[in-house]
Every structure is written in structure tokens, then in C-alpha cells.
Amino acid sequence: MHTFQCRSCAFVGQFGASYVYELAGKPCPKCKKFGEWQDYKDEMAPTILAREDEKLERLRIDQQQLVVRRDKCQLEFTAAAEARQALESRYERLVKVDAVQAAKLMNDLFKATMRLVTAGNDLEDASAQLKDVDEEIDNLGNRSAVKKDAPVAYANARNVQQTSGKNKLYIGSRQYVSLHARKSPKKKFRILDVPNWSPGLNVSWVEGGIRAKAQFKIKLNQGDQYADIPPKVLQLFQDPANYNADDFFKLCKAQGKGSLLWYDKDGAERPTWTALEIWCLLRAGYTFRFADSKTDGAGRKIVLMPPL
Ligand SMILES: [Zn+2]
């Protein structure tokens, strides 16, 4: 997906097209003008943060409707279970005295069972949809805190040279990276360290580092598949080192499932936050540099280097 901007109203959008000419017939969704598209290479965080606010509004409405639906399904399920139970009791009492009545009741019992199964499926479906929406809302974080922290995270990354003595930041599995950062007082300035979190806030931090032309070291934990990148994929970053940002997410999905690059647990299907960070860097012209690591072994010191 290429990112384009409207010259007229500054709207930033992502479209399936690769070139401006392919968008020539497409109006700007905001100002409705044609022919105003230009490639957008600048910072994404302000746009992402604004869209998160809009998305959260929509999700809250979905969430309310789903709670109503889930509760209604729950009532229907309970009623169906009780109705079936009542029929079953009647059947047990009747079967000893009246075979004809019992056969009719048997038929009712079968129908009641089917209604119970349907109600159970509906309830499960509504609960699953609600869980997805709850998780999406969760991922957008606490909005007022996120908006307060985004410029702070940006500045922290931008000033990492002054605070940590090196123009270097660490990315990777959050847990593993913060463990690493605790090893020295200087290192703690090289990670995103905020209590609140959203994709837009994360991108703010990365873009602060990009503005400072900081190096981004990917910390990999060989013992944990979710904190590591498969060797086959790492190979693709070595040749060529300037891996295409547009191909990157496709690669994450195709070959990075269950790794540091793609999150597919609990029904989710999305790039990890580390993949989002790497994508921002590739988009800004960063290239991979591989070296041997004293602690992690040959070819395992992986740094994303800023463009010259
Ligand atoms: Zn426009």
C-alpha cells in the first residue's frame, strides 16, 4: 500500500495504487477534488492518531450494539434451555403411563433441542464479535493519555543521543527489550517506555528516532519464537538490504506467523507492533545491516540504519 497526500487539503491516505497516475481518476475523500495526489513520505503519526480517535468512536457504537445483542442471545439461550428442561421432565413422567403422548412430547423435545443449539450458536457468535471489538478498543488505549504521551515519546526518541550517549534505539518483543534496557541506566532511554499505548503512539516514537536519524537495533530472543524472526526471513533482509516497505507486511503474513513479525493468536490476524515499527523505518529509507553478535551469535546483530 502506497501512501498519498492531497495537495489541496493535506489529507493523507493509503491506496492500493502504486503511482499517482493510477489515482488520477479518484477524488480526495475529504475535499472531493481530483488530480491533487502526491506521494507522501513524511511522518504518519499525526494521521494515525487522528484516525484512531475516529475509529474508537465507531467501535464504541459497535460495542454498545453488540452488548445488547449478546445479552438478548443470553436470555434466549437461557429460556431455550429452561423450556427444553421442562419438556424433558414432562417426558420422563409421561413415558411410563401414556406412550402416544410421550411420542408427541419426544417430537417437541427434539425441536426444543434444536432451538437450544441455535440459541447457543448465536450466543457464541455474538460473544466472539464483542470480544474482537473489545480487543480493538483496548488496542487504541486510553485516548487522552495516548495523545499526551505521543509527543513525549517522539521527543524521547529524538533526544536519545543526549540522554543515552548513543543515537540508538531498541525494538523487538516488548518484554524482552525492556529486560535488556534494565541492564544499564543509559539503556533505559533507548526504548519506548510509556504506560499507555496505541499504534499511533508507537509510530510517534519511531518517527522521533527517524527524525534524529537514530539507528534501530532489533533485539531478538532466540529461545522464544514470538520474540524472534525466522532465519529464512532474515535471509531476505540481507539481499537486498533495502527491503521494500510495500512488500514487507505481505512477507510478515506469509512467512512470519507466530514470530516477532505477525500476530495470529486468539483469532487475531495482524502485523505485530515490531513489524509496524520496521515498516515505518523501511518506508523512511532505512536499510538492514547484519553483523555478528557477541551474545547472540553469527549474523544476529541486526540494525536498521538511517539513509545517508
Ligand atoms: Zn483533499
Question: Nearest-angstrom radius of gyration?
Answer: 27 Å
List of distinct ligands in this structure? zinc ion
Oligomer: single chain
Mean pLDDT: 90
Percent of residues in helices: 40-55%
Count, helices:
9
Question: In percent, how much strand structure appears in the residues?
Answer: 5-15%
Largest sheet geometry: 4 strands, mixed
SSE sequence, one letter per element: EEEHHHHEHHEHHEEHEE
Total of domains: 3
Terminal CA distance: 25 Å
**What is the overall silhouette?**
elongated
How many extended strands?
A: 9
Secondary-structure-based class equals alpha+beta
Can you describe this structure?
With 308 residues, the protein is α+β, with helices and mostly antiparallel strands. 53% of the residues lie in helices and 14% in strands. It has 9 helices and 9 strands. The strands form 3 sheets. A 4-stranded mixed sheet has the order 4-5-9-8. It has a 3-stranded antiparallel sheet with strand order 2-1-3, with no helix packed on it. A hairpin with a 3-residue loop joins β8 (287-293) and β9. It binds zinc ion. Zinc ion binds next to loops. Zinc ion is lined by residues 6, 8-9, 11, 28, 30-31, 33, 36.
